[in-house]
Design goal:
By secondary structure, this protein is mainly beta. It has 3 helices and 22 strands. The protein has one domain.
């Protein structure tokens, strides 16, 4: 009996040693991966931090953070991964569908069509959306994002180096309206652009299919000219989505007007989709009405004007 008991103890000890040896080997299965961010595609970018994701064939994504825009070294298990990177120093950028490389999307929050302070001063119905875009989400303009992706990254027992070249996922659309009338009688001005992408698929490197309306500010640059600009995730060139610009004007006498321009052609034909420039002619704002007689629309109503654009 005593001999049998000692044999059992010896077997347990061997099993314990084997277990420790397996764990020890597992710890040393982590490989070194040098991640390099090459900024030649965005030489003026200077992000404060970068997120780097590895997506294995199975299991959850692995995220690493770098405060050095040049990159750094990480340790991960041997295998084949899809990878992506983007700057993480943003406040308004939201993430969704991040479980998979091909569905990883950045987007922005839902907002209001007019600035909050303007809405508080109104006691009327909500400002109108562009025709055909009534169901679109009103999305905040995105901050600047630079990203890159790489499929099929092999991490092996040899020291490995991965270079990613982030480029802009966000572009800018600039609007100029010349020969605007009666700008001296404006109390508030803003604009919106419909049919734009609601997000960007970082793994795929393309705008998402959601269509949104993005509000932005317009300012008076001189007595007859308005200018404004808005950052966007772009649009989907393969889809013939209409893009309408609406200028919302609240006059000094309380009347509210909105002017619609179809800017689809200018957006789709822009030579640089990262720097779209829209040039429009004419904004027929009315003169203020006096209180003495004549028809005066209710300040509760939005008056609409469609502006034809000569091609």
């Amino acid at each position: 009996m005593k001999k049998t008991y000692l044999s059992l103890l010896a077997l347990l000890a061997l099993a314990s040693c084997d277990h420790k040896e397996i764990c020890y080997d597992h710890m040393h299965s982590l490989m070194h991966l040098q991640v390099v961010f090459d900024w030649s595609q965005a030489p003026t970018a200077s992000p404060a931090s970068m997120s780097f994701y590895l997506f294995p064939d199975a299991g959850r994504a692995i995220r690493n953070e770098f405060t050095d825009p040049a990159g750094g070294e990480i340790r991960t298990t041997e295998g084949c991964y899809d990878a992506l990177c983007l700057n993480s120093d943003t406040e308004g950028i939201e993430y969704r569908n991040t479980e998979k490389w091909e569905t990883f999307e950045i987007t922005t929050a839902t907002t209001t069509l007019l600035p909050e302070h303007t809405l508080l001063s109104l006691r009327s119905e909500k400002p109108p959306m562009a025709s055909g875009a009534e169901s679109e989400r009103i999305a905040a303009a995105p901050e600047m994002v630079w990203c890159d992706r790489r499929a099929g990254v092999e991490v092996s027992s040899e020291e490995h180096r991965l270079t990613l070249s982030p480029s802009a996922a966000v572009g800018r659309c600039t609007v100029e309206i010349r020969h605007a009338d009666n700008l001296a009688h404006i109390r508030s001005l803003s604009a919106s652009l419909s049919g734009m992408a609601g997000g960007f698929l970082v793994g795929a490197g393309t705008p998402s299919t959601e269509r949104v309306t993005i509000p932005f500010e317009m300012t008076k640059s001189d007595e007859t000219t308005l200018t404004g600009s808005v950052q966007t995730f772009g649009h989907c060139p393969s889809e013939q989505t209409a893009h309408r610009l609406i200028v919302y004007a609240i006059l000094a006498d309380g009347r509210k007007w909105y002017y619609t321009y179809d800017v689809t052609e200018q957006i789709h034909s822009a030579p640089d989709q990262q720097d779209i420039r829209i040039l429009l002619d004419g904004l027929p704002l009315p003169e203020p009405k006096s209180n003495s007689g004549g028809f005066r629309p209710s300040v509760e109503d939005w008056q609409d004007v469609y502006i034809d654009i000569e091609m």
